[in-house]
## 1
Amino acid sequence: MSQSPELFWFTLELAAAGVFAGVIAGVLAGLFGIGGGAILVPVFYQALGLLEVDDAVRMHLSIGTSLAIIVPTSIRSFMAHHKRGAVDMDLLRSWLLPVPAGVVAASLIVAFVSSAALRGIFAVIAILVGLRMLFNRQGWRLGSDLPGNPARAAVGAVIGLLSALMGIGGGVLNNTFMTLFGRPVHQAVATSAGVGALISIPGLIGYVWAGWGVAGLPPFSTGFVNWVAVLLIIPITMMAAPLGVRLAHALDKRQLEVAFGLFMLLVAARFLYSLG
């Protein structure tokens, strides 16, 4: 990649792949009403495969880049929800240390595990999320209010760990936690934006550190974060998301849950197949 013409054409192809990934992720994120990490990681993974990026770093790069993209979107969403008074600030304050601690643990894991291991982790979590969406029932409850410490801190650390290993902002996991303990779904969604910031900011730093100096990374990458993809995908997903939102309004909430559940199971099957 050191020769100028090769670098130019590879960068152009990477930009095209970023546009493709951004459009697909934006439409699907708007359709399913989530931050896009669970969608962006498999889409970006496929796009990097088309560019013949080294398989040893493809999954790491997909997850790290996804977390970098979540940083501005989660902060913007949190500020908007906070202005409306919809965020559970007590929960966020209690998670200021546990959630980032889980992310740090994930970064340490990422520095030493293979691409195959990360795909396996993603697939297992995707299966659990997909089954949860397929069999979700509004009446399911584990309690009438959120648990106190140390259980609450442990949940925060697990959400940070799993989300950072999967490249997501933790929305699906936090929404499940809060609604199972009687919190309104709107409050859960609003609070998840803040959780996304607690995950993505240290996650971005952790994936840069974990990938520092690793061979096989494409141009304009700092560790496991590719800045061409970041700069392209953020505005493109924002432009493409309204199309997904229009599609979402043609379906009811249960249909969306089933569709997203099936999508996650399909992604899990794709990653498990790649391990064969």
## 2
Amino acid sequence: MHFISGLPRSGSTLLAGILRQNPRYHAGMTSPVGSIYTAMESAMSRRNETAVFITEEQRRAVLRGLFSNFYGDLHQTKLIFDTNRLWCTKLPALVQLFPEARFICCVRDIAWIMDSVERLIRRNAFELSGMFGFEAVGTVYTRVNRLAASDGLVGFALDALREAYYSEQASRLILVEYSALTQAPADTMRLLYEMLGEAPFEHDFETVEYDAEDFDTALGTRGLHTVRRRVEWVDRETVLPPGLFARFENDAFWRLPDANSRGVSIIRLAG
């Protein structure tokens, strides 16, 4: 069992699309397991008056059993990569439930994450997005502020990544920069396989396939989980106003020279 987490719009769906080419692996977009996991934690907490009868061993067994029961036979025959940005907040428990697990965290410049979300909103100009509660009013500034809030799509994920990055379990992390995955996919995957202790596999970066059209349409954000068949880097101008784009230019904390005190593995472009 391994986990994919990190920041939104940073390549996690693309990475899953690449990994699933390997017949030994199962990977996909954000799964329901994270929300079920937190619901079970709540049900076994002290807010439930009968929780006094639940031992720590039983809590561990119930939570671990969630994964094996959810994935069923796949859990017996394939290496599972479960995706959820929530996992960065659950390292103390997950490393006990799965002692061999690694946490692959996809990362990207925050300003370009905001740009990517805004592009999706504008591309779906006749739809209201569930990412913003299907609200019909707002500006690019209110949308970005909502995303950046501590409980927002980006703000929560960024705080969760920081928590994991500076935690006692940080050595379990593998950060994969979006620029490395899209500009040097073969080298990135080779390094990732080495870090996971897995046998090499020849991926086809010209025909990567993954989409979740029904999910994205229901969210009012078509294209949210669609990846290009060819893995490539696309240069472009930002759609954000200059001041708004510049607001996030120093938020890539993992690039700070003295930040990596826990020895986190980071896959980035050379140079």
## 3
Amino acid sequence: MMKITPKAAAIAAAVLVAAGLGATWLASRGGDADMFAQCRKSVVGGTAKIGGPFTLVDENGKTVTDKDVFTKPSLLYFGYTYCPDVCPMDNSRNAEAADILDGRGYDVTPVFISVDTDRDTPELLREFTDIMSPKMIGLTGSKEQVAAASRAYRTYFKVQNPGDPYTLIDHSTQTYLVFPEIGFVEFFNRDTTAEQMADAVACFVDAWKGAGK
């Protein structure tokens, strides 16, 4: 019998999440004109049932809602600070994309939600995000709060060895582009470069501003 490794399981879960995102968009195509149609690469028009309200705790220990966090276009990622490679690489890429956009005159905020409620304190999150970017916002919360945010964005995570202080956590690795009031509009996979992400986000922001937002 073939043994499925944790890494293989995580990859399979990420593939299922990505497929689910695309299916959700395809299933939810509506009749309204899509202001972002010319920008889309990963998803197809309409209003998706991805994202929604949440209540979490920011890196300064303050309770915040999604309305407090998403005050401008944002790049949202779910992960954890103890992650040995994927999360630092992905968050660094997101921070680089935000820097590229800043140089072009676009103000975009990287946001990092930790799924590691046992280890990622607000203080630890602040250290992590400060290293990544002074603009990055770190969020955590109770198990229930984080699980609710994860469900809203259709993400996956699973603690491999609960109670082990060195445990790894399997999790999906998409980055979400979220706009104030509108919510989720696009996702980016791990193979998207910072430059590619910046180009795509700029298109979305231009369309958003062009619609008078």
## 4
Amino acid sequence: MQDAAPRLRSLVGQLLGAPLPLRVRAWDGSEAGPPAAPVLVVHNRRALRRLLWKPGELGLARAWVAGDLGIEGDLYSALDLLSGVVWERAEDARGPVAALRDPEVRAAVRGLVRMAGSPLPPAPPAEEVRRSRHLHTRRSDRRAISHHYDVGNDFYEIVLGPSMVYSCAYWEEGGTLEEAQHDKLELVCRKLALKPGQRLLDVGCGWGSMAVHAARDHGVRVVGVTLSQEQAAYARKRVADEGLTDRVEIRVQDYRDVADGPYDAISSIGMAEHVGAERYLEYAEVLGGLLDPGGRLLNHQIARRPQRDESSYAVDAFIDAYVFPDGELAPVGTTVAQLERAGFEVRDVEALREHYALTLRRWVANLEAGWSRAVRLTGAGRARVWRLYMAASAVAFERNQIGVNQVLAVRTSGGTGASGMPLRARTWN
């Protein structure tokens, strides 16, 4: 009898305390649930074992990456529906032992164990990495950056498009991704008030887009630093192709090892998420020490929402295991406070949350359009990681669960307090 899907929906509903908002198709071909809803495809019983051994986000992610689970229909709609469901109801806020005191939870778990067919946990997918306890040493940071960015430049070209900018774009109605990324780079340059002949340090320079834009369009001399060998090779070729080798230097170097200041300006675009809570003040102090008095820092960084208990930093289990090992997000207020503790004066904060949701949706569309080639380049598991990560992140930005901010800070003159900022600061608009 083909009845796995209705049984699954019933048991999951017991765990959640509410009906599963998706339609389910099980390995036996049965289906159950709202006819118009996206379909959660449970390809095999192994998916249940993954969820039983790791209830919550990590178990779901493992099943997705391994191909044990899939979604048919609108992926964004499915993720949006699931984001309103607290899967951790199976564990309870007090932990799995307390949750299992609930008779309904115990009955549902027993039912899922019977359906799973085996008590043994499957091995995690090969794409999963082990955490390094967020030490953020030079060695652990190099390893984490390599895991994320050395996937292959050809793969990133599929996802990011010709701009090769891997951070939130700056959109106008009806614009293209390339236009929006150009406008973001130009916005950063205007906020930094770059002038010909000045020195710019681009921390976490990626594939060289900011360095090339600033040197070509604003006449500055740029040092770009990255920990990724593949990024550096790509960026150096772009610099050479643009005829900018006399103005742009790309280094494989930790920002903590930059010792040739002072610089007139520093851009840090989508890099500070890798720094870590324990190292953030050091990061701010190092950058402040590399700036001339009156020098500006533009810090473009994803932020999470504050928690009741800020004694420890929240880490997303899926992203930590598959996407950004050792990455940590902080509230924007924490970032501002740390910059000010390091001696900066924060002059402007601009939230770009909706812009990142739009950017991620374009990246997902690029990946889906080039899916076959992406799978050939990186493997099906890695491609599934990226599709889930970017689509789920788009939903999180849209639901205001996370944000992204550009923080403009200045190193004022120690003797006079002069900032060099105009009286009407938003001259870049």
